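Quick illustration for those who missed Monday's session on complexes.
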Amino acid sequence: MSIQKIDHDAALFDLGIDSLGAMSIAAALEDATGKKLNPELIYELDTIRLIGAHLDSVRTPSASAVTSGVSDSGSSEGASNKETPNPTSGTEDQAGEDPISYFTRLNRKVNLAKEQGVYPFEPEICSHEGVWVECEGKRMLMLASYEYLGLLGHEELNRAAEEAIADFGTGHHGSRLLTGTTSNHCDLEFRLADWMRAEDAIVFSSGYVANLATISALVGPGDYIIGDSLNHASIVDGCRMSGADFREFKHNDMHELTSLLLESNGRRTLVIVDAIFSMEGDIADLPSVVATCKKHKALLMVDEAHSMGVLGETGSGIQEHFGLAPGDIDIKMGTLSKSLAGSGGFVAGNRQIITYLRHHARGYIFSGALPSVYANVAIAALEVLRNEPSRVTQIWKNVEYYLAGLKRLGFDTGTCETPIVPIMTRTNDATLKFTQLCRSEGLLVAPVCYPAVPMDAPRLRTCITSSHEQPELDFALDVLERAGRQCGIID
Ligand SMILES: Cc1ncc(COP(=O)(O)O)c(C=O)c1O
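Prediction with pyridoxal-5'-phosphate bound:
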């Protein structure tokens, strides 16, 4: 296509530009104009006309500004859940511009979608009963929830919350280290260590904080971190925050992991992987990761946010799933906000590591305690899970039934093998239309586009729980089939 034929108002990504293309365009524009353009802004601005107008408003940077403002993601696969557009990056370039118009320009797509009534995020749930929710004036089947074991609203968990509020109130007295620790926290840490087959555990105010605080406490400048390229954003943020030399290996590729380990040059090395990958729904090849880490004397940390309550016969996670030995995984991170239907995060592992974290993890020391109520809710959830392991078996029966149904209909579910089931949609427009059609028929699904996944791999993310019953899965498949045909995602 010649330059003259490109419509200045066409969306660049509809012309087939992907994240790598955006980076090349930004580099070429910088070469041509001397003005720095964050490639993520190309996604926000989207058309040649808007990018041109934006560049007109950008001052030529001073020499010192040239090295700032471009995403430094080293992702080998373009997966960019680590690339949250940073509106402040490059602000030096926009000196003189009214900051509100700057942010308004970045919000262009969001504002437009809201005006057109097609904004798909933050659907407002007014109430829920089992797997059904009241959302935006409509009864919908929830097919996008992380609460894999159907414990949200469980009477034992609700009772535990009420008891803790009666005992300790709704908040805390301060950070855990000073005055925020209650008997519920201590009890929960003891039970989590036992559940995760570890020596000790430490509870944080969220899973995100657990990853950030733990990784940045365990390694620092001069150390070396290697992560799977599809790791969750909270892991990536922790790796970056640590200041250690941070590299990524191609998803589940042991050959690349080994090559990177060979470059450790005697530095203290931490390898981090998700147990279940949150956007793909596949499982880490952990036996190989364990063997490789042992050979190279690297510490291994595994994020069990989506595997806890899901993998292993009793739901204790990836160690049980693969029959690994105690101690094969040095550090297990988990969240209380998914299977355990509460809120908070934790890390379980070797006692010396946990003791060290209590005294060095800044997100633990300089933040108020997880409210005691959530510690007690997690205790109750673990107890329900211990008494009812059939919940775990039921998830897998549901996954098998639902996945077989999707495959029969011709949907592309990628490498999924767990309750997180992506449905590939090829374009952002199709993703949004598919989402809307499903919701209009009473099926609550979640659209996932860049930057949560690579630009060329948008999808619906659906999640299966142990509480879905066969007629509900049939209803979901029925709606997905009609909507999928209407959007051209299946024939
Ligand atoms: C893999 C993974 N790790 C960590 C987190 C953060 O957990 P939390 O929601 O408790 O902050 C998430 C949340 O979605 C996740 O998917």
